[in-house]
């Protein structure tokens, strides 16, 4: 998963939105618990923002150069699917640079 270390080259900011207690955000909470430390260690200068709001649908947002943003809904996705969505958002950032 070498792409994890490349996120800071392709993204300006990563935001994860979730509910603290809803079942629809449970996989997203688990994803954060298991992956945040590794992602932050590999990308120390990349802002990774975790925003909790009661009742919100879990989402993953990436901000790129020039204020371009892309988002993915995470409801119903497993941890592997969330990782794949994050990888795809990183690829979008690489394609925007080219």
TrEMBL record:
Intrachain disulfide bonds: 19-53
Cell compartment(s), UniProt: Mitochondrion inner membrane
Lipid bilayer topology: Peripheral membrane protein
Function recorded in the entry: Accessory subunit of the mitochondrial membrane respiratory chain NADH dehydrogenase (Complex I), that is believed not to be involved in catalysis. Complex I functions in the transfer of electrons from NADH to the respiratory chain. The immediate electron acceptor for the enzyme is believed to be ubiquinone.
Protein name: Ribosomal protein/NADH dehydrogenase domain-containing protein
Coiled coil feature spans: none
Lineage: superkingdom: Eukaryota
Gene3D superfamilies reported for this sequence: Glutaredoxin (3.40.30.10)
Domain Ribosomal protein/NADH dehydrogenase: start-end pairs: 20-93
Classification via InterPro entries: NADH_Ub_cplx-1_asu_su-2, Ribosomal_mL43/mS25/NADH_DH, Thioredoxin-like_sf
Gene Ontology annotations for the cellular component aspect, listed alphabetically: mitochondrial inner membrane
Keyword set, alphabetical order: Disulfide bond, Electron transport, Membrane, Mitochondrion, Mitochondrion inner membrane, Respiratory chain, Transport
Main location: mitochondrion
Family under the similarity heading: Belongs to the complex I NDUFA2 subunit family.
């Amino acid at each position: 998963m070498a792409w994890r270390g490349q996120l800071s080259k392709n993204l300006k900011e990563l935001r994860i939105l979730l509910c603290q207690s809803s079942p629809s955000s449970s996989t997203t909470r688990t994803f954060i618990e298991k992956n945040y430390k590794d992602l932050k260690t590999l990308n120390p200068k990349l802002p990774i923002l975790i925003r909790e709001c009661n009742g919100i649908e879990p989402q993953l947002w990436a901000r790129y150069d020039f204020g371009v943003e892309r988002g993915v809904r995470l409801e119903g996705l497993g941890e592997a699917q969330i990782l794949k969505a994050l990888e795809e958002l990183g690829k979008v950032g690489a394609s925007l640079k080219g």
